[in-house]
Design a protein that fits this description.
mainly beta
Length: 242
């Protein structure tokens, strides 16, 4: 009788090893005013975006008509009328990350706007952003206030802009980091400073300082990370063993 020994077959499958993309804050930011040309110089990094938060004319109408970066239009992602007062806007521009100076123009039919430019790396290059929340239209900054946004894509970053009337100074004390502190009639710019994982609600706690009466409103958006890329196309994984 012949004896047959079944061979052990090991099949290997070539599967790329994916490097997870991660968003990071560019250390550069700028506070700019006016309808003329201003310049902003981001740092260097890949999958870069610029976020331009704009406060229109206080007590005015919906008068900001657009934002350009080097004559290219930025995309208005969100807008909010703050307690029947000024309109506030969030614009996104895909690009930057080159360490070069960029010309930024905010166009308006009203008075001189005030705006902040911040940039991030590792962001999905799409003007269809992860999420927005522009429902937090009026609250007192006499005490701590929570503003929340729900992210959709895993590892997104939450961003916030706070506009106010009054004289209080405020910072983010939980849920993120203050990039530009709110002081007097200025604005607060901040973000989660980390990936929101798993996707879901991110709550910013805005805590006042100083004294006096102030009212604020919050405008928020979230940015999804750039898709992962193959870092090692030669990694082998077992497909079957029998």
């Amino acid at each position: 009788m012949k004896r047959y020994i079944a061979p052990i077959v090991l099949s290997l499958l070539l599967i790329p090893s994916l490097a997870s993309a991660a968003i990071s804050f560019d250390t550069n930011s700028a506070k700019l005013t006016g309808t003329g040309t201003n310049t902003f110089t981001p740092g260097t990094g890949s999958n870069a975006v610029m976020v331009i938060w704009v406060e229109g004319e206080v007590g005015g109408s919906d008068n900001v008509t657009g934002v350009t970066v080097d004559t290219h239009a930025a995309t208005q992602e969100t807008k909010l009328q703050c307690a029947a007062s000024d309109f506030d806007y969030g614009y996104l521009y895909l690009g930057g990350g080159d360490g070069a100076s960029h010309n930024i123009v905010v166009s308006t039919t009203g008075a001189s706007p005030l705006y902040h430019v911040v940039s991030y790396f590792g962001v999905k290059q799409s003007t269809t952003i992860d999420a927005t929340n522009n429902s937090d239209t009026s609250y007192s900054i006499a005490a701590a206030h929570n503003s929340s946004i729900t992210t959709i894509a895993d590892n997104s970053w939450a961003l916030i802009w706070v506009s106010q009337t009054g004289s209080r100074t405020a910072t983010i004390t939980s849920g993120g980091t203050t990039r530009v502190s709110l002081s007097g009639s200025d604005n607060l710019v901040g973000d989660s400073n980390a990936a929101v994982h798993p996707a879901g609600s991110n709550t910013f706690t805005i805590t006042p300082g100083g004294s006096g009466s102030s009212n604020g409103c919050s405008l928020m958006m979230s940015l999804a990370p750039a898709p992962a890329t193959a870092s090692n196309p030669f990694q082998l994984w077992p497909l079957s063993l029998f």
